[in-house]
Amino acid sequence: MNADSKITREVVTRFHNAFERHCPENLDDLIGEGCVLENTAPAPDGARYEGREACLEFWKGIASSANLAFEAEEIWASQDRGIIRWRLRWGDSAANRVRGVNSMRVRDGKIVEGRGYVKG
């Protein structure tokens, strides 16, 4: 694994851990200026957020929700790209869960692009 891939993996892992541990404050140092986020909803294309503050506000809202439980299935990185495959639960029933993936781009140690997808 080259140096860029190691940095990307570290940043993407820290990003995911903020959601798993419900620590939105841990996102502050991870989001870059000019970040672009495409959310999983609403279908079919998802909402688009542009700029560091808009992305940070959206992601912090999710990370702070005690009703949501994220679990990583896999975190992968190569160069400036990172992939997080995850499971999300919001209740005990099998109907209260979904699997998805985030495709991330990291530049200068900060996330500058995030695109979320879920299994339909």
Automatic annotation (TrEMBL):
This is Nuclear transport factor 2 family protein. InterPro entries: NTF2-like_dom_sf (IPR032710), SnoaL-like (IPR037401). Residues 12-113 form the SnoaL-like domain. It comes from Aquibium pacificus.
